Amino acid sequence: MNSTLLSNIGRFVILIFLQVLILNNINFAGYINPYLYVLFILLYPFTGNQSLFLFLAFLLGLSIDIFEDSGGINAAACLVAAFIRPYLLRFSFGISYDHQNIRLSNAPIGAKLSYVALMVLIHHFVLFSLEMFSLTHIILILKKTLFSSIFTIILVFLSLTLFSKKYR
């Protein structure tokens, strides 16, 4: 087994347990909750098999759903995020993505921020829309999406900084 496969398996398992055991117990002001498990979707190798990636994203969300008993909303949100990821990569990184030479750790901060922020916002919007499943709650959906996204984006960037290979 190569190191990329092992690091992806480790990241998958660690993020699920971190989300379920610690992060799901954080709830600021009743509607701010970090969802760091999207880091797996953000960091999955850009040149990896897309079909396998969609399956793993679904499995990631389903694992969270099983622990949370949330009826598949995390699986759906992860699947949407994984499906739109190539478009977000092309939007954020442009020609670098087309030539498959992106390294998230070396990317300009603007491109990295747009990629992470758009991915997290879309994931969270789908998640909270399915959770509420009513347009009468659109203000609450948008509020939860915005504030949970800000918290998640901060955690993602902290994680990227703490665990990047540059600082090892």
TrEMBL record:
Keywords: Membrane, Transmembrane, Transmembrane helix. The keyword Transmembrane helix applies. The chain crosses the membrane at residues 12-32, 38-60, 72-93, 113-133, 145-163. This is Rod shape-determining protein MreD.
